[in-house]
Amino acid sequence: MTEPRKAIVAGAGIGGLTAAIALQRAGWQVKVFEAAQTLRAGGSGLSVMANAMAALHSIDAHAPVEQAGQVIRQFFFKKQNGDPITSMPIHEIGEQLGHPNINIQRPLLLRALAQQLAPGTLTTGLRCVGYAHRPDGVQVSFEDGSTHQADLLIGADGLNSTIRQQMLGETPTRPSGYIAWLAVTPLNHPLMTEGYVAHYWGRGKRFGLCDVGNGQAYWWGTCNHDNAADAALSVSKQEVLSAYTGWAPEVIAAIEATSESAILKMHARDREPVKQFCDGHVVLLGDAAHPMLPSLGQGAAQAIEDAVVLAGYLARTPDLRGALAQYQAHRHPRVNGIVNAARFMSGIEQAESKLLCWLREWYFRLTPQSSLRKKNVDILSFKPCA
Ligand SMILES: Cc1cc2nc3c(=O)[nH]c(=O)nc-3n(C[C@H](O)[C@H](O)[C@H](O)COP(=O)(O)OP(=O)(O)OC[C@H]3O[C@@H](n4cnc5c(N)ncnc54)[C@H](O)[C@@H]3O)c2cc1C
Questions:
Q1: What class is the 6-173+270-377 domain?
Q2: Whether the model pTM is above 0.85
Q3: Ligand 1 site: residues with CB under 6 angstroms?
Q4: What separation in Å is there between the alpha carbon of 242 and the centre of ligand 1?
Q5: pLDDT tens for residues 82-127?
């Protein structure tokens, strides 16, 4: 009997965990190494859109995620005072595609994925520091001085990836020009019906309010900043309240309901797209390969798609380098297109000029639902390997 092929995954985020599940289900022996002492226990929420749910479904990993999340039922764009601009047919597109769009707390998503790993797969508190090519595989080094051999190393180590740095050299991050606050809080408000999502648009500021189920709301706020990349990341709830003075009552209620310690503040960043995601027996996925601004809610979704497509090619193509080349060719047009689209959308959403904000509002008001549906179907459709 032939020995199972061995993979090492650097990083137990959404992409790394999904890759490990997919490869184990395809018969690989997988070890995941996470630099942090635990899977991210805190943090906020996110949306796992229909394309990601379809990818998870294709490896039968969707059910625990669906159970831990909340299906998005309504999706509104509103003015900062809460007046409606338009609604997005996100729920209808999910029904058309046969997969729901989910809001979920990030720790619950990580847990829903991690629980599907074979026992003993995950080692936490051990940072991967580099790799060396071997004739028949790769040797991976860790910060405690240990090394492990494998047929494949997957760099799923996020925005500041060590594996990417070694593979591609310096590829600076690009600031977004804004900072973001994020939190999950209990919220009882008449507008927060089951599966509610609303994005409120102001000048150079946005606010998102999402039902993540069980009486909890996930909210995020973005605010243009002259020097966003250097803005201090210490959180003051008063600063957030001041940024949204005069906004819709539900926006103020969400911030007021949140304890200061539950609020995260971060810089949103992406990188110039690249076409290379692999080198020998080493491959990148998720934010390590193509970090993007959050405007389209697709960063984690694309990490999940990467993981499933990668495992698909590895399962059907015996030649490992050939499989990685197929993965790279399949993925880079889609993910790089989304990186660019997210940056473009971010410019529109964070617009400050009165004229641009007025045009934005009227563009969305006048665009028919059928057109909004058409624009979103492609991005929300998962394309498995051919
Ligand atoms: C404000 C904001 C809102 C967002 N909202 C959404 C959304 O609604 N929907 C969506 O799809 N996406 C969203 N995203 C994007 C999403 O969060 C990321 O794209 C996603 O987390 C990427 O997953 P990943 O597994 O590639 O990387 P990460 O989640 O960053 O995981 C990387 C892991 O690797 C570990 N690590 C790092 N270095 C090493 C090392 N050297 N060795 C071992 N382990 C290491 C880290 O500790 C971490 O656990 C949002 C992003 C932001 C900033």
A1: alpha beta
A2: yes
A3: 10-16, 33-36, 46-47, 127-128, 156-159, 162, 180, 182, 220, 266, 268, 286-288, 294, 297-301, 303
A4: 29
A5: 999 999 999 999 999 999 999 999 999 999 999 999 999 999 999 9
